[in-house]
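Help! Submission page says 'invalid entity' but I think these are all valid:
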Amino acid sequence: MSAPDEFETIARLLRPLATAPEAFGLLDDAAAIPSRPGFDLVVTKDAIVEGVHFLPNDPLDLVARKLLRVNLSDLAAKGAVPYAYLLACAWPASVTWPQREAFARGLAEDQAAFNMTLLGGDTVATPGPLVLSATMFGWVSAGAMVRRSGARAGDLVQVSGPIGDGFLGLKAALGEDIDPALADHYRLPNPRLDLDLIGATACADISDGLLADAGHIARASGVAFELDLDLMPLSDAAAAWVAAQAGRDAALLALATGGDDYQLVATAPAVLPGFTVIGRAAEGEGVRAKAAGKTLAPAALGYRHGN
Amino acid sequence: MSAPDEFETIARLLRPLATAPEAFGLLDDAAAIPSRPGFDLVVTKDAIVEGVHFLPNDPLDLVARKLLRVNLSDLAAKGAVPYAYLLACAWPASVTWPQREAFARGLAEDQAAFNMTLLGGDTVATPGPLVLSATMFGWVSAGAMVRRSGARAGDLVQVSGPIGDGFLGLKAALGEDIDPALADHYRLPNPRLDLDLIGATACADISDGLLADAGHIARASGVAFELDLDLMPLSDAAAAWVAAQAGRDAALLALATGGDDYQLVATAPAVLPGFTVIGRAAEGEGVRAKAAGKTLAPAALGYRHGN
């Protein structure tokens, strides 16, 4: 079979994924989303790059699903219900037809799992690594998007599940002696669309690392966060890894800064269902963290304030 | 100054471009677009790759503006009014801070020119060439998007301006002895948002080449197109280039298949204001073209039917 081409990729692999009438079967230059009075359209766009956000040998069905899921995780953090997405793929010539088929299969699988449809996008060639981006659309009741900026002093800071499995999952995927189940978590995160954020004053998903993403909320809200890393929920594998490290503080800090967890960090006056409290918002700015009762030096927190 | 970093790029260069309240100052995971009853939201997404869609030495302010304009051209073809965009940038480490500043300056300039605002997106690093994608939003009255699929047998096929300047502009940009003004056209196309498409039964912008994009309309509409390449409007530079070629038919065909014109090709029962008729829709399928009264062999048309 000849080298895959972009027209054929669209016609054979992507068109079957675009079944909603507003996608016009990908035969048009654009899609048209009808107005939905009483709702806001939540839009987010994330890009992933081969060798940066996924490994060159990762199977492309998992890469496709990861692309959708990192965007779905943003919708989850905003309290939005997934609706549809646009896709831009820059393909290296080296990606074979069966690999492209696997990519489309992964999209189809997660479209079905998350009740979404493909609305359009672009498919181009690149002399470099595979670069993918998705624009994801979801619906919230008008004005009800959970923002980063609503945290108030006194709110409880809470997370939706284990912290650090993304960090350890990357190590496992790179062949370190860590529970291989965590590598699956790294390759295929699980966006927390199952949670109810009613009552949350602010929320973000944990993609850059707990401390960085908590810092985004603190900064957007104009408050400080005081976190206790000993309160972080850990998977059995992460707890075992921490126990095997020389320094417990440094190990907890590595989990709290590693990223790719795709859990949610939220604030609310009360505990949200399914969340675990790890600290509290206070007057001031920045994120302070302690472990084993000791405050960790700010420089050790290792995240950027710039964003 | 240290190497540019993604957080700083967002904070310093992109945040000032995101002034609409629905962008939340790029401090959130997502934007929220309020419902606009009576209107449909037209969405399109195009990607461009260094070395494929623009030249490695092209100034990044022009690249930014080209990125916006290729997407705006899609909105123009749909009869939509520009509203906002999302941006995904995969930056090579080699792109310097002044180059990134130029990029943001280009965005700012065309945001103002086309009355748009930045809503969000993603900024990542890549080991490969610069890859950019924009998701562009525009508004049309509910149900009024001009589609590719509405052409009917008997409609006039018409174009909004000179054909082939994109093709020749690329040659000029690559240093061939062609009017340098055409290189500017290649680097900075002009989306035809100034046209009124009322009465158009179908429309597409000319990015893949006149024959290819006309073919998209014919296919989506289930009709054939019969075009006369001698009726194509040509710029003075293109007319001079055709006159200098050994074979006139082949020269016209090159202009009609070259792409990057960013004019519009439309169908309507009557001539649309500002358009030039180049043929007619008929029962059947495919695109037939003639020049100097002779029908050109279908194989010579050189475009793909797949899309």
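Support: the input was valid. A stray whitespace character was the problem, and the output above is from the cleaned input. DSSP finds eight helices and twelve strands in chain B.
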